[in-house]
Write the structure tokens for this entry.
Amino acid sequence: MIWNPAEKMNRPDMARLQLERLQMTVHRAYERVPFYRQRLDEVGIRPEQIRSLTDLEAVPFTLKNDLRDHYPYGLFAEPLRNIIRFHSSSGTTGKPIVVGYTRQDMENWTDCCARVASAAGVTDQDICQISFGYGMFTGGFGIHAGVERVGAGVIPISSGNSERQLMFMQDFGTTVLVATPSYVLHLTEVMRSLEIGREDLKLRVGMFGGEGHTPEMRALIEQRLGILDTQNYGLTEICGPGVSYECLENCGMHINEDHFYPEIINPETGTVLPEGEEGELVLTTLTKEGIPMLRYRTKDITRLTREPCHCGRTNVRMELVRGRSDDMMVIRGVNVFPSQVESVLMTIKGIGPQYQIIVTTEQFMDKMEVQVELVDGQLLESYAGLEKLTREIKQKIRIVLQIDVKVTLLNPQTLERTAGKAKRVVDLRENRNF
Ligand code: ZN
């Protein structure tokens, strides 16, 4: 079901609405946030010079570091008395980034997340288990509000404790699961060890997000759980979940364009690329009051299409995110995304979905090792069997990446499981920043 008429607005009307909101946003940012005023003054742009959507291209990018540098409230455009919610994202180093929502921001966020749920086919008939983390992470609270608005029954179980998750799923008759894809795969392994079959669950839809997702991973989830797998996308800096979402056609994620204006740029030059080309997604918020973002560089690699979708929605779609431009590793001069390795691993029988990539330097040369778990630990007893499997993985990775890697097969359940984003790459190179 299409939740909000904005999702099927005709293109000229949408463009007009976007321009009107963009002009308002640039004005507010310029008037109220010293950081934006300084940035725009530096390039000699006045808000009234934004007369078309493409005029936005002259506005400088905003980076994650800009949020960190203005920790905690430096980029807020509203006095704190108007902020009714804070969230933050964990930084791996130093201070986190902090975002604030006004009452109107919360209302828009809820509506955007209701569109996500509704596009995934969620209705008031559903029971929805939210295994995203609650707390400062935006995932739990964002989807919670959207699913509740659609009228489904929410189980706010949060992340972790897989056995309890599965007990609730069985006893409460959960029909919709909200989680990160890697956690879902982990749950399917726990199901196997507890001898819970997919027929013991009433699950019918997955609303997955919080990290990238390959088609192979999706196929595996569908096969193991027999559910419809829908993806959604968001990031703390923009609003959390609710930026874009898949409909039942499974052909890319519709962006809530009346709230977020997307551009695709060449991550190296910063130039805007034509529709259909792959590059880094840049988002500008069009309605955000608490903390407006002008041309925020998401680092996520994707492409856009405005081809009509069979579902009837007219809003632009972005491809499932293939990787992050800062996840991209350069190994001996070759661009490598963890998702490429993952795609290969998913096609090979006898190994599990959990893996880790270790990059090191040896004699000034980059060296990449792929560690992956066996489904059956018994194979470790068979030298010939191990050899054959290792060779197969190496060959297939070479075909995709054009480089040789070391492959290490591990006992089942060796790699660390997390309820959040899985850590796929350990880069131990000394000069990786160059
Ligand atoms: Zn659609």
